[in-house]
């Protein structure tokens, strides 16, 4: 039988019907785990950018959560769901306004938030409201262990830790590794974690090249830094950027003719960033907690249904939002009766292992995922470039 590419396979699974997969998954749970249906609705607040440079991630967050509801009769824990979405905007001020609006509307729980800096600024608001928030994009390490903030995605330094541990074993003795990152707290934390796990005193690690932190760099923004990078003689480059910044970095990197192999956290080539990079993204390696070609039953259900609904492969952000709905489903079910926000927060710690598209994971004590990390490479997948799974890197968390 001839081989078929991932997109063809997903279309084939989609033709069989996502509802069939959903029925099969439901039957594995057993009747004892079926939620008692209730007519009492629960209101869930979804914080996601609907405008600005992070709107692409916001769309993924909305799409992932809504897909779970579609596959589960618009219920969580047996209750009909009133999903209320608020525009996160582009900064901490607009994110707080969105959260305040959802709290005023009586949200039982919150989810979403694309901007990690904005998320950090929401700590006091969430803790003061005693309403749980399940974050579905990168989470600063400073928020680990916060009572009412959970993560269904990852701690921002985790992909750097996974890459550092991997590269220390594959970079040749005579090779040189340079790092490029923005000068904000997130960039510095990522570089520190990469250096720590690679070996801070390892002679193969050379200079770190810092750039200004910006979400929308112009077409010459990286050129001075790339000139320094060329002079350094690096064979491998670790780059920490996302969205438009990652796109511009790659385009300027290729136009300058640099040949060093790029390794980056998964957000570097996620979603439309990969499309915007085009052929110039080929060969880039990334570390991520998800790849759309993972071969497990939960991912076959999720990826085929997502592609059928949106005509594109799901991103890690869409997957994390889908899983946020899944853990809320379990937590609300465990509450029974008419759940309160405080009960849901307590039960989030008791949901156990999650059968996720990324593979099985669970919350650890700091309220972030204990999960596998994967090495991916941008390669042709059928007629397009995709983040193709290569191997497992590590289990972190």
- Spell out the helices and strands N to C: HHEHEEHEHHEEEEHEHEHEHEHEHHHEEE
What is the tally of helical segments? 14
| Helical residue percent band | 40-55%
Low-pLDDT sequence parts: 8-32
Shape: globular
**Which sheet architecture does the biggest sheet show?**
8 strands, mixed
What features would you describe in this structure?
The chain has about 400 residues and is an alpha/beta fold. The chain has 14 helices and 16 strands. The strands form 3 sheets. Strands 9, 10, 11, 12, 13, 14, 15 and 16 form an 8-stranded mixed sheet that branches. A 6-stranded mixed sheet has the order 2-3-1-4-5-7. Helix 2 runs antiparallel to helix 12, helix 3 (about 55-70) packs across helix 13 (about 315-335) and helix 13 crosses helix 14 (about 340-350). Keywords: Signal. Belongs to the leucine-binding protein family. This is ABC transporter substrate-binding protein.
């Amino acid at each position: 039988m001839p081989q078929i590419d991932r997109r063809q396979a997903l279309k084939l699974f989609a033709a069989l019907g996502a509802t069939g997969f959903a029925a099969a998954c439901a039957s594995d749970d057993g009747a004892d785990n079926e939620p008692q249906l209730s007519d009492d609705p629960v209101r869930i607040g979804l914080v996601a950018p609907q405008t600005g440079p992070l709107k692409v991630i916001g769309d993924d967050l909305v799409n992932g959560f809504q897909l779970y509801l579609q596959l589960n009769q618009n219920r969580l824990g047996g209750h009909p769901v009133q999903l209320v979405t608020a525009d996160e905007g582009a900064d901490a001020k607009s994110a707080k306004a969105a959260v305040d609006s959802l709290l005023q509307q009586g949200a039982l729980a919150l989810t979403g938030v694309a901007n990690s800096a904005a998320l950090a600024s929401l700590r006091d608001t969430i803790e003061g409201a005693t309403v749980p928030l399940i974050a579905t994009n990168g989470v600063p390490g400073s928020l680990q262990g916060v009572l009412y903030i959970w993560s269904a995605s990852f701690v921002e330094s985790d992909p750097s830790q996974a890459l550092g541990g991997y590269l220390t074993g594959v970079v040749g003795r005579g090779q040189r590794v340079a790092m490029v990152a923005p000068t904000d707290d997130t960039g510095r934390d990522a570089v520190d974690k990469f250096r720590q796990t690679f070996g801070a005193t390892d002679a193969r690690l050379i200079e770190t090249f810092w750039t200004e932190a910006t979400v929308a760099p112009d077409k010459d923004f990286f050129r001075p830094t790339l000139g320094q990078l060329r002079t350094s003689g690096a064979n491998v480059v670790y780059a920490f950027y996302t969205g438009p910044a990652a796109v511009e970095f790659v385009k300027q990197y290729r136009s300058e003719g640099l040949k060093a192999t790029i390794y980056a956290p998964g957000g570097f080539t996620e979603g439309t960033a990969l499309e915007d990079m085009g052929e110039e993204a080929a060969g880039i390696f990334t570390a991520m907690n998800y790849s759309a070609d993972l071969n497990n039953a939960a991912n076959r259900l999720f990826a085929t249904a997502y592609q059928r609904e949106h005509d594109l492969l799901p991103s890690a952000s869409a997957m994390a939002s889908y899983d946020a709905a899944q853990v809320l489903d379990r937590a609300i079910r465990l509450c029974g009766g008419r759940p309160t926000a405080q009960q849901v927060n307590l039960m989030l710690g008791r949901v156990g292992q999650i059968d996720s598209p990324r593979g099985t994971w669970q919350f650890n004590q700091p309220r972030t995922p204990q999960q596998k990390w994967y090495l991916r490479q941008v390669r042709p997948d059928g007629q397009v470039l995709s983040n193709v799974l290569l191997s497992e890197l590590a289990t972190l968390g």
